Amino acid sequence: MPPAPLPRSEKSRRTTDSPITYFIQKALDDPGLISFAAGLVDEASLPAAEVGAAVAEIMADPAAARAALQYGSTQGLPRLRELVLDHLCAADGVTPAELNLTPADVTITTGSQQLLYLLGEVLFDAGDVVLCEAPSYFVYHSLLQSHGVRVLAVPMDDGGMRVDALEALLERLRRSGELPRVKAVYTVDYFQNPTGLTLAADRRPELVDLARRYSTDHRILVVEDAAYRELRYSGPDLPSVKRFDPGNEFVVYAGTFSKPCAPGLKTGYAVMPPEVTDAVLHLKGSHDFGSTNLAQHVLARLLASGAYRRHVGTLRGVYRAKRDLMLAALDREFGDLPGASWTVPAGGMFVWLTLNGIDTGPGGPLVPAALAAGVLYVPGEFGHVPDEAGRVPDDGCRLCFGVATADQIPEGVRRLREAADLVKAGGAGEAGGVSLVGEALLPR
After folding, report:
1. DSSP for 107-169?
2. Are residues 205 and 132 in the same domain?
């Protein structure tokens, strides 16, 4: 007799894998495939020597070694929190006092993904609403789905999220009586995942002003996901959205050391209003009593010594060259294809390719054609939520140049054009009922 069924919580039943797992597994199963799918970092540039030196220094000092190998605090290593705050404020050209911030407003997390999850636990009930860019970071969509949150999309243009459209949406929700369910506006404001677009400088203070104006009976938070901020290859470093929150009231700034340093250290950080910090720490204490202490000591040494800054400078050069290779290959291979266009990111790891007239979605013909040609991409459909008619755009591709080598990038783009030509000629079939869902969530 089989055992009785396992009871599961409503949240567990709402939680599914993110849709990119299929593509990661494909890349693992076939090393011959060129992957523009997973947002993994360039392996050759990982700071093995710098991290090794920091660990050796720590272990050579018995007191430092014991401190690093002991439990840490839930909020994180005080020295690292101090350095993180100085680092952020230096980038914004302000002092902590000008933003009403102290190290007590900084929390160290196990990657920025943990922070996003903990924020969800703190802020959301089933039926609440979060406003996101369209398209947006699809792993965050999966997280919101687990909380039972409804995602409403705000259109983008070359300047990132359109704040005029955001204001119109907030006003519509106010008039319909739904504004009390709106808990947050989420933006990846630097070199966005998935489009590579950046929120324009003049829209940043407007975003905070909108949150303030529409916080009538409850506070609406802006969640600023700045995971890619330091991977900037051209143009000035724009001030953060947090820079325009001088009272430390409306903006949660989420950063990570995964992309600009090493994902294996699994360390992120957040700068938050005090009430949010307190609530997050109550939950984090139940999660892990604090993120990995040794990694925090290593990062503190890298920041204090200047090794982190030097590594980021090197990394910018590595990724700038990869970005330029991808853009040149797209111009060469897709420049003559009617309906093809792509973003030109000033940083980050992603280019958004639009192929008007070709179904790039998980059930469309381009996915199997690309696989047959030996290249992987992420269907842009994953970054969208259905509109009121249940439709999502099906002509976008997210291309990541992070893990592909300099030799693979032009060849991968050539293979993708080969697949697009096959689809245009009617020579590619449908996905054959393959379910392109289910992914290990990549930590940030």
Report:
1. EEESHHHHHHHHHHHHH--TT-EEEEEES--HHHHHHHHHTTPEEEEEEEETTEE-HHHHHHH
2. yes
